[in-house]
Design goal:
Layout: E1 15-27, E2 30-32, E3 35-36, E4 39-51, E5 55-59, H1 66-73, E6 81-86, E7 89-90, H2 96-102, E8 106-109, H3 113-116, H4 123-133, H5 138-151, H6 168-180, E9 186-190, H7 198-215, E10 218-223, H8 226-232, E11 235-240, E12 243-249, H9 250-255, H10 260-268, H11 274-278, H12 306-314, E13 319-321, E14 327-329, H13 330-334, E15 340-341, E16 346-348, H14 356-361
Parallel strand pairs: 5-10, 5-11, 8-9, 9-10
Antiparallel strand pairs: 1-4, 1-6, 2-3, 6-7, 11-12, 12-16, 13-14, 15-16
The chain binds adenosine-5'-triphosphate.
Amino acid sequence: MTALQPRAEASAGETLLDVRDLTKHFGGGSLLPGRTRSVVRAVDGVSFEIRRGETFGVVGETGSGKSTLGRLVLRLLDPTEGRIVFDGQDITAMPGGRVRALRRDMQMVFQDPYGSLDPRMKVGRIIVEPMRVHGLARENRAARTADIMRQVGLAPHAADRYPHEFSGGQRQRIGIARAMALDPKLLVLDEPVSALDVSIQAQILNLLRDIQRRTGVAFLFIAHDLAVVRHISDRIAVMYLGRIVELATRENLYARPRHPYSAALLSAAPIPNLEKERSRRRISLYGEIGSATDMPTGCRFHPRCFKARIVARRGGLETAAARDGTVLPAPCVRADPALKQDGEGQMVACHFPLDKTEAEAAPAVAGDETGGRS
Ligand SMILES: Nc1ncnc2c1ncn2[C@@H]1O[C@H](COP(=O)(O)OP(=O)(O)OP(=O)(O)O)[C@@H](O)[C@H]1O
């Protein structure tokens, strides 16, 4: 294991990670007699799989549960419910010692490379440390360190310097080198480029793609920025308040979002083409993201949903009042929609999924109404 090599035994397309009904609730119980702590439903019944060598993107606003999901998958957090099968092994309740051994095959890259790199360690030591911990033969370590540094675009003399001597982009290269030290099968990348300048972001994303092509590593790529996720992902899950509301291939999601929340998120993402960007129309959602301690009844997106209002206005359906008195279709207020297959490669959790014209009928952010912001 001296070079980043494609894994001969791993056939692309096979399931590497299988997550079923994964749930993480924080809080609950009581600290003082008679005083109950509210439960935060950070991740609330999430199912998906990641194939070997694929990039699975997870997007959503802050607080939607993305980071918690990433940490659960790596068993940095214990799930409340559900099942995680990694590389054929059920790791849901695996004891700590065995989970540590598993880290060889699943690693994490953080948003803030500086915060996650030990400032007192030289770069060479940072990269070699996981090899030492996992018992890689001493005689192979130096060659592998040099090889990984080359692969991530770090000069060999960087090994003798400290993290603070590097720029943000270079530090993220160090973080990636450390994560790849043991040739893992899965990398969980939590907002790996959001702290970087846009020009540097593209370099790091290209580096990740390059590493993936060479090694066959799969990525669980978490980001709030849809442009970034689009650049790198094969399939994308859109999260809202602890749930996946849409799961689709990149092509399908961007060409034809079926969940009103996905459509709104996509409409807010900048478009590289200037002409298209000028005529972009951002969809306005009602209110703020809800609270993970006080979930709305029925579909948790209904208080913000433009489609529910369109359907209610059309009439002919039983309606019900939302908490704020808005009249909406009864299923939206009362029944929690399951994530269901909706065409090839696309799953959506919505009682009334969008068609194209409906996304165009959604209310626009002020200033976008005429279809152009000059
Ligand atoms: N250790 C914890 N204790 C209590 N609540 C938590 C804890 N960690 C996360 N949460 C809550 O769980 C919910 C989901 O948080 P999480 O960080 O997973 O979301 P996120 O989508 O990654 O957001 P961000 O992009 O801001 O990190 C939030 O309401 C958050 O406040």
